Amino acid sequence: PVCGAPASATPLGSGKAGQAGVPVLTTSNLPIVPSGDFTLELSNALPLAPAYLIVGFSLLGAPFDQGTMYPSPDVILGLAADAGGDLSVPLPLNPDPAFCGLDIWWQFMIPNDPGASGGKQTSQTNAIHTVAGS
User: Fold this and answer.
1) How far apart are CA 24 and CA 124, in angstroms?
2) Could you read off the pLDDT of 50-97 as tens digits, one per residue?
3) Which of helix, strand or coil describes residue 99?
């Protein structure tokens, strides 16, 4: 193995409902260095809606639009859910040992969801904390 410690993906908190219910963030497989099969999976989002992936290198855990923004918003990626309200984000990891032990918090925010409360009407997923390893 490239890393001396195991990989992990731990769910954190709960989401905030929108028109399609509470969107859910899961992973398929663990962030193993190296691997090509680690994927973030968004489900139960508003169909065909923008979905912002919030990527944080630390845990924020702050109130946001009557929900919680779990990751610090260090990187925000604009993506979109499909017609079923789903989205898969593959995240391949190369064999560079610099990735070993990398802590990342992940969460999706879906803005302008007509079924969501709050001034920005965001539906929100739970968060997932990952640590890259072997």
Assistant:
1) 8
2) 999 999 999 999 999 999 999 999 999 999 999 999 999 999 999 999
3) helix
Which positions ≥6 away from 26 have C-beta within 8 Å?
11, 40, 41, 43, 128
The encoded tokens of residue 87 equal 């989205």
Work out the pLDDT band at 1, boundaries 50, 70, 90: confident
- Going by the DSSP 8-state scheme, the letter that residue 46 receives in this structure is P
Q: In the chain, at which residue ranges do the beta strands (DSSP E only) sit?
A: 8-12, 24-28, 39-43, 50-56, 59-64, 67-71, 75-80, 87-90, 103-110, 123-124, 127-131
Tokens for 101, please give them: 């032990």
